[in-house]
Design a protein that fits this description.
Order of helices and strands: EEEHHEEEEEEEEEHEEEEEEHEEEEEEEE
Radius of gyration: 23 Å
CATH architecture of the largest domain: Sandwich
Largest sheet: 10 strands, antiparallel
């Protein structure tokens, strides 16, 4: 990536400052010592005047941290053009992630480190995202062709750098070699019917003017429009299943945020309002809220309020028939999905995804390697926010 030609898109928000000076881009927290913030921005501006600013900015910002009280220096990250690729420096809870290209380096974060963390990315890079590690996954939704910071300092919540011509979308899913293109369906089996009563479903398609960058991105494998992933989960409706074992509210130990929303006790920020969680707040027992949403490539959104079986005809699943899970039917004209293709299981505050299909299988998009990784049958995978799952030729993104 040549930084001078890359498009810089600040993420919406006011929790940070996004700065660009030629081949130097920096994101720093907006809270902290104002003198430290001003000096950080000024050092980036000065380094940008060098023929190769990468080594200069990493040394300069490392010296800034070394000579100041760390509690007064805001978390920050900077990316600059180096001698051979990109130079990256980070301090505090900021994460810098490279996307695209073969053999992209590991993410860089200063979280948990005493001083700055520096790295060099010599290989080709299609996009770079800079976001605060404690504020959840980076909001990877970017208005296509509209937002671009060419020079200066603006408020934001992080930023994305995108190289000209970089296509961030994963390739269409194709059945593995030797796999059946479709699953035979008995003549007596009926087509997938309407959504079962009581299942949680919300939202709809997001405007098509959105382009998506990074992990949790992609297009419908059979269409050209981008996958409609919302920058924040749509309003959810809690499921009221009629099935016995999943009808009772699940009680877990958690912590309320300052506004009273009940959260995972491990969370640093409230999942509902993003308020900072006080570490000293004692845990209490309470009804667990929905553990996020699954957003399918046609815009259909399901709130995860209970265990689900996903497929063309999930009612055939023994778990559904026993009342241990709700059916989540997915329209699949190509019949690339099995009738009971995968299962969602809520355990504590975690969401486990298990592939049940031996025909066309399930896949996890690996953004670092830019490839679909097949998931073994019957082995649960804990979903992280932003995870993209391929089911046959359908796709879904998990957000929380």
């Amino acid at each position: 990536m040549i930084l001078e030609t890359a498009r810089l898109v600040p993420f919406p928000g006011e929790s940070a400052l996004v700065a660009r000076f030629g081949s130097v881009v920096a994101v720093c927290g907006a809270s902290g010592d104002l003198d430290a913030i001003a000096e950080l921005v000024d050092r980036c501006r000065v380094a940008a005047g060098e023929p190769t600013p990468g080594p200069v900015v990493t040394r300069s910002l490392a010296a800034l941290v070394a000579t100041r009280d760390h509690s007064r220096v805001p978390p920050f990250a900077a990316v600059a053009q180096g001698d051979d690729g990109l130079a990256v420096v980070a301090f505090g809870g900021v994460e810098v992630v490279a996307h695209g290209g073969a053999g992209v380096a590991e993410p860089v974060t200063g979280r948990g480190q005493v001083g700055t963390v520096e790295a060099s990315w010599p290989g080709p890079v299609g996009a770079v995202t800079i976001a605060f590690a404690d504020s959840g996954p980076a909001p990877m939704v970017v208005p296509d062709g509209v937002v671009h910071l060419a020079l200066g300092v603006v408020p934001g919540a992080g930023a994305a750098l995108v190289a000209p011509g970089y296509d961030p979308t994963p390739p269409p899913l194709a059945p593995p070699a030797g796999a059946a293109a479709t699953e035979p369906v008995p003549a007596s089996a009926s087509a997938t019917g309407p959504v079962a009563a009581g299942a949680a479903r919300a939202g709809g398609p997001v405007p098509e003017a959105l382009d998506v960058v990074g992990l949790g991105v992609g297009k419908d494998p059979t269409a050209a429009e981008p996958l409609p992933v919302a920058p924040a989960p749509p309003e959810l409706r809690r499921a009221e299943p009629a099935l016995g074992p999943v009808a009772a509210p699940v009680v877990e130990d958690g912590r309320p945020c300052p506004r009273g929303h009940f959260n995972d006790p491990r969370a640093r920020f409230c999942a509902a309002c993003r308020a900072a969680m006080a570490p000293a707040t004692p845990t209490v027992a309470g009804p667990r809220p929905p553990l996020g949403v699954l957003i399918f490539d046609d815009g259909t959104t399901w709130a995860l309020t209970a265990d689900f079986v996903i497929g063309r005809q999930p009612d055939v699943s023994e778990a559904v028939q026993r009342g241990d899970a709700l059916p989540l039917p997915v329209e699949d004209p190509e019949r690339s999905l099995s009738r009971a293709h995968a299962q969602i299981h809520l355990s504590g505050w975690d969401v486990h995804f298990t592939n049940l299909s031996t025909t066309n299988g399930s896949f996890l998009w690996d953004a670092g390697r830019a490839e679909w990784r097949p998931l073994p049958t019957g082995e649960p995978l804990v979903l992280e926010p932003g995870a993209r799952i391929g089911l046959g030729r359908r796709q879904a993104v998990y957000e929380r």
